[in-house]
Amino acid sequence: KQEVTQIPAALSVPEGENLVLNCSFTDSAIYNLQWFRQDPGKGLTSLLLIQSSQREQTSGRLNASLDKSSGRSTLYIAASQPGDSATYLCAVRPSSGDKLTFGTGTRLAVRP
Amino acid sequence: EAGVVQSPRYKIIEKKQPVAFWCNPISGHNTLYWYLQNLGQGPELLIRYENEEAVDDSQLPKDRFSAERLKGVDSTLKIQPAELGDSAVYLCASSAYSTGELFFGEGSRLTVL
Question: What are the pLDDT digits (tens) for B31-45?
């Protein structure tokens, strides 16, 4: 059974800092991995999707990397802003089947 | 392009009452999902549709929950009767075969009193 862990559970940083969020998964037989952000009381917004054949994806100040062999993905946020404050979740889709497994998220607070 | 649309956004009911949630996925997305999210937790799959067929409903509590996706587009999730423990956010998501990228709606927050 796939297990997805996100550490730390919460993070508070000053504005402008570069930061890394971690996502670990136990079964490396994945089809893709997706990063989301969730604002309080809102649904999940897709940030980046990395297919199993890819090593990284970039969108603006966000960069996500994938290392299947070690069961890890990182989300790098450059020059953080207060507007980046949200909960960030990763989700893993298996190579067989379609049931995503979500982590419990990292709650990020960027202080002005 | 419109995203995934859900309604209602909020619903407060007394226990034992019925409730229904509606979802309109992104146009052209064949796969539709209903998830349940409790506070501080990641989403948990309730049911997945491929077009109008429910291909994974193993986590759906079938004694009180039901879902349908008529004509393979809109979907409705129903709870009857609701229990206190059903208070949560019900999220709908859709994806296309080509990428498998999931897009979520804003969710329907249910409070059962």
Answer: 999 999 998 889 999
